[in-house]
Structures
1.
Amino acid sequence: MKSKLNASNAVVAVVCAALVLLPVYSAVTGNIFILTLFTRIIIFALAASSLNLMMGYGGMMSFGHAAYLGIGGYAVGILAAEGIGSGFIQWPVALAVSALFALVIGALSLRTRGVYFIMITLAFAQMAYYVASALSRYGGDDGLTIYKRSTFDGLINLSDRTQFYYLCLACLFGGVYLIWRIVNSRFGLVVQGVRSNEQRMQAIGFPAYRYRLTCFVIAGTICGLAGALLANNTDFVSPAVMYWTRSGDLMVMVILGGMGSLFGPLIGAIVYLVLEELLSQFTEYWALIMGPLLLLIVLFARGGIMGLLGRVRRG
Amino acid sequence: MFLLIEQLLNGLQFGLLLFLLAAGLTLVFGIMDFVNLAHGSLYMMGAYFAATFVGWTGSFVLGAVLALAATLLLGIALEFVALRHLYGRDHLDQVLATFGLILFFNDMVRLIWGPAGLALPLPTWLTTPVQLLPGVYYPAYRLSIIIVALLVAAMLYLVVMRTRIGMLIRAGASNREMAGALGINIKLLFTLVFGLGAALAGLAGLMQAPILTVQIGMGENILILAFVIIVIGGIGSIRGAFLAAIFVGIIDTLGRAFLPDLLRTVLSGAAASTAAPALSSMLIYLLMAIVLVLRPEGLFPAAKR
């Protein structure tokens, strides 16, 4: 990725700077609402970025990505309910369980292609949804309230709004940096090669399946982190986090921002969630406007917002 | 034993209903290569139209016929205004655009009919149970769903296999470009097929309406089931959709009815009552995952392109 001064890079730089300075603005104006809104946006941006690694670079159209949000969240929630409040235990467990889940469903799903892949990932996410609904010990359908956020003794206090905001932002920037490194590594180039021509990559000696699976697991694990953050943010986790419309939301964010562009999901998450917030203040029926808007974006703005801004790294 | 027969019939009824939904979906999918998530919204609209028109006319049958026509027109309008511009696009674009339509329809229904669900009362002649075998009674309405759905399935089979329009549909499904090159008006055919699919979805919705409440989001769960069916059955295959739908309907219903007791014999009471609802909801998805892993093209794939 060469650094160039163009419209989209400028927008990304401005957005990132604004995100870093947001708590200052919030403290000066006393506007707490904007801080909580953007904490949520940043968490979803992280989840969408991980989906982008899978969809945009790996060409794997997962329609079940919200499952990892739920799994990461439930790992935190269940451990908290069982009296293990330390984030040093909760978070690694959340990541490990997400990775394991991704490994199992990836191993099965990657045997299929195209629409079948979309449907089988959806099916696995729905299964996770029903399992969570049946966990009567942990709230079942009603969800699980987390009474105490993860503790990181001596390091950071998650109950402090500003500290938690910066932790989320650090996770997002860290995640995007990791994805950038992956995409430009030999591994990432192979994965992108498999996306554009699997047979050819196979023929020149790359085990395509293993590369895709590894990419799938990495993306799932990053999303599991977003799930752990989300559970801490809402102090609550419920099966609804894993419902298929949530996976749809994540997909929308990725495509809206620009699939296969590093900061596209961040821009997409900001636009989607801010729009939702604004429209729902303006009218109760916000989806009445949002729905057709999505249709128009698909019809007329291929490559999403980053595409419109003129730079999309699409194969 | 009677319970088993009753549950089998319930499963058959549910399966046939799913078939009506899946048939439209698989036609659209198979012929136009179009993933229509908004198919569930048409199902929902069918139910809302029926509730409204039955209320206006006071006649169940007349209301149902009007609702069917309304859904057909809605489907054609939808295809004409928006969806036809999405053919040939990436599946992902189609998923996104029709996801937007779901949002739109859900809120539109909320705006017009309000957030509370509606009830569609049955006329008295449909509420009396019918005696099937000595001692075996079955609700007349559910029985009539089975009959109507079977008739529609038979008609669909005849139309697709025995008429000129069906021939064109099959030609379009097996090779779109070639069919177009041979002078078939593909655009008109697509609109027609889409309208047909919409009407079938509407029929499923309006028939299901008296059994469940008519509510927002009712199309979403069942849409996923319909997708599961066409994936199990093999995309584009009506025969596959029919068999898979009945299979899924029966397995789902029997699972919900008997799995809790079955599990209780193996597990302790508490563990069984936790596991049973999850397992019975998952059964279908589990089935689909197994089918896809073993036969990635579905059980009855349509002829190769």
Note: Chain A has a mean pLDDT of 88.
2.
Amino acid sequence: MNCKQEAVALMHKYMDGDLNKEEERRLRDHLQACQACQSHFHELKRTTTLITNTMPAQAPKDFTANVMANLPKEKKRRNYARLFQSHPILTAAAVFFILMFSGIFSAWNQDQQVTVSKQENLEIKDEVVIVPEGVTVNGDLTVRNGDLRIEGKIDGDVTIINGDIIDGEPDGSIDEELDSSTLRAYTGELTEVNQIYEWVWYQTKGLVSDIFSFGSDE
Amino acid sequence: MESMIKQKIKEVKKGDQSSFEDIVAFYQNKVFHICLRMIGNSYEAEDLAQEAFIRAYTNIHSFDERRKFSTWLYRIATNLTIDRIRKKKPDYHLDAEVKGTDGLDMYSQLAADQALPEEEVESLELQSYIHQEILALPPKYRSVIVLRYLDELALQEIAEILDIPVGTVKTRVHRGREALRKRLRHV
């Protein structure tokens, strides 16, 4: 038997308790014959005895108290964090809402330019969109960041974002006649959006109706 | 005892911080011991053991209750300690093999000075001498020797704690044992 390689490997296997009967016999036979391996084996056994019998270390007296004092306090925030960890769908929903609302808010703040949906025959003057007299606008009209004055007619819904509807008379006299004329001025619904929460609501409503119309298209 | 610990862990998971106190009290000596024998200084060992328990507490929700808690806890402690050893300036010069020799390191050259006359060796001195020799091992052998002999853990459990195959644990135990045999033969 090769002392350096095989015998020493067997000694370690013996110490791990991995030796089978055959290997054990071979190791025993070899140890009886080889003085060098015998002392090597003796030293190994003594080493393991020495290191096994060293006294276990004791933790300092106030160790437990120190650990407890340094534990993070149970906070509500940690509970939320755990909630999000254990419910991925909740996280997805939260991320979705954050993205959606941040998109809407940024769109609100984006530009203060007067924008009008694409229709012919409209006049834009000093942030006022004018439907000239005798003109009929076909389709829905959307005015953003501007007021709307209707002198002619609109055949469809009217949406005004961040603006007002101004009556036809420059002197601003309000009478029943005006009411009726305004009522006649457009055939659809009038929506005015002036506050950010209205804006959010408008967007959400638009999104929902989009989703439903997608559904009905299919 | 294992079932008592399991119960306590359940309570901690529910948010009962005070139940963690019993867990710390139960494992503190073992964890401190592992850290101390690996890092070699009780101040740092206390710091590491404390950190290990705090990490165990904050990550208790990631502990799988079907597994053994001690394995998980020791794993946190050994990982922290190994990280700390790595960050410290390495002082392997005594372990480095002397070139041109077969497995001889600087320790074998100093051996004559270190061997103490046997009559003078008090038990405590012998202990600290053995600890010094364990500390002189390279960290990868040191960790398996500490877990194997100072805590008498099974090879399989050591493999789980260190996240290495059992075969690697065996090889490291063998090499560590051989290295210690050379250093402790004159004791």
Note: Strands of chain A lie at 115-116, 123-125, 128-131, 136-138, 141-144, 147-150, 153-155, 158-161, 165-166, 190-193.
3.
Amino acid sequence: MAAISENYAPTIALDGSRKTRGNLTQARIRWMILAILLGFVVVGGRLIQLGMVVTDSTIEGQARDVITATRPPILDRNGLEMAVDIRVPSLYAEPRRIIDVDEAVRKLVTVLPELDPEWLRKRLSGDQGFVWVERELSPALEERVMRLGIPGIDFITESKRFYPGLREASHVLGSVNVDNQGISGIEKHIDNEDVALLQDIGLARGNDLAPVTLSMDMRVQHVMYDELQDALVRYKAIASAGVMMDIYTGEVVGLVSLPDFDPNDPKSALVKGSFNRITAGIYELGSTFKTITMAAALDSGKVKLTDQFDARYGIRFGRYTIDDFHGKHRILSVPEIFKYSSNIGTIRVMQALGKENFRAFLTKLGFDKRVPFELPEMRTPTIAKEFSDVGAATASFGHGLSISPLHMAVAVSALTNGGNYIAPTLYKRTRAEAEQSYVRVVQPQTSDWIRYLLRLNALEGSGRQMDKEADGYRVGGKTGTAEKVVNGRYSNSKDFNVFASAFPMDNPRYAMVILVDEPEAENAQSGVTAGWNAGMVTGRIVQRVAPMLGIAPDFSPALDVATTPSFLRSSGSGE
Amino acid sequence: MMRNLNIVLMLTSAIALAGVYGLKFSIEDTANQRSALVAKIKSQEGDLSLLKADWAALNQPGHIEPIVRRHEEALGIGPVQQKQFGSFADLPMRPAAPDSKALNALFESLDAGVDPIDAILEGLQ
């Protein structure tokens, strides 16, 4: 100011000093306005610049939200948790903020000795904003890492799936990957259904997902798991599996397949042979198939329960002769054919029905395609489009065609529930809901006859060992002992044993299929056919689960008489 | 006049300044409290999820059965057997109630000195 006024001082003061001062003030004001404007421009520019910056909030390509996304808890039908989310800390690093990589590596390795220092050094050097170091640690380790006080190292809380039942329901639940996406079982189905969609549109971020209630009963599941595990040891079998379903609602209450995997450790699912044998395995189910042949024949009206068939001689097809395993070699009535599991008799019954009708019946039971079911692990059955004479004959007793055990469970349900096909489900469903999707496959009368035949087989046929185990629970069932194909030939020593059953037969509620692969005799007195292993396992399971399912034992012979059709009662059944 | 106005304005701005700063700090304080609470809730939710998982694991039939088996002998328990079930129909009928009226009549007649047996005995003679 002084300088300016001094500059002006020597000039001739033409203007009055007041005017000079006024001019000076105006100039100063202009400079001030300019300076202020500049200041605003700088601040505004910085604001725009900050607004343009896109902060990288993703974690290695994924939104942070997705990492912490939760999954709905899965409950069994009684509300017991089968899968829950737990919050676990995951360790990450921000390499661009790490000052001394070597020091960070040295310190981290003291707490996490399983990390490779060389790998860790590479991971922490560079200019990235975010890298995972180790995911899903325990809170105790989190504490210790935090105490190291390394800059640029921090934790994020992730959701981790935990299956409190451990291995027991592994095949039903499936598993999730480290990013909490379902990769198998019902977890994958839930994702396909809605969770993925919810997560995509930004929901499913909190803890507020409604739980998914399954039709499974963990008590039944546990008993089946326990008994099938026992079967592996008892019969030195290589595999065993079982499924139990409500015959009226189609709800699957138990599904076990051994060997299995640990869903808490998804890598264990990669072990060979741990696939779901119930849905993703297709097998020749042997004589259990006779139930289906009988139902087809009886329902057509072309065969009556009172009919007799000649089973004296084996049936020749070209070079082959089909004979009976424990042949009676005499004329047998229809209940006797079933009871003695006569191949010859069953072929004759099928021939009386006609192979086209027999084939059409299999289509009706859904044996041409996969069972409509929630699990993604399903296989299509192999079954000829049209049967040759020989093909139809072998098919009538369950050889030359492969279906999944679940197909058989669904078929047994349909044949014992009054003749209605109901697709199985893993979700809770009431009977009224199920009835809307009923498809009639056989008449109620035929269903009654099948109940009688199954119960008869338990009382007098190959199901006797089973019935001894589950005495009083009125189980009816059919055995199937199929020789396994080894190197393209049926083996004499390796069997695949099945037991298809329903209980309690006077008013059936549950159907069950149990299979035991390559069993050996339990002791010198017992055999290797299905009645001795798959059958007895069935009996032991029913003995344990029936009280849980509200089925009381009843030893009254009147109940078995009541299941016998009236025209067979006086003469007795067979011999 | 101007001077007074200026003083008033300066005072007002000084008070406003102090007020705004006070507000700012109190809000910062509240925000800190909030984030501390959020962090606490988060960690408690985490603990809760672990406890829930624990509870679920402890409730599994597969976890309970081995415990039951271990104490089977000491407690004298075992899997339920078919013969242990009963129904109401199996219960025996209630024994016929004593005929209290007749008994009362008997005692009354005894009190009155009349023994009905006497009459029968006399009849026999």
Note: Chain A touches chain B at residues 80-81, 84-88, 139, 157, 162, 164-166, 168, 207, 218-219, 221-223, 225-226, 471-473, 543-544, 547, 552-553, 555 (CB under 8 Å).
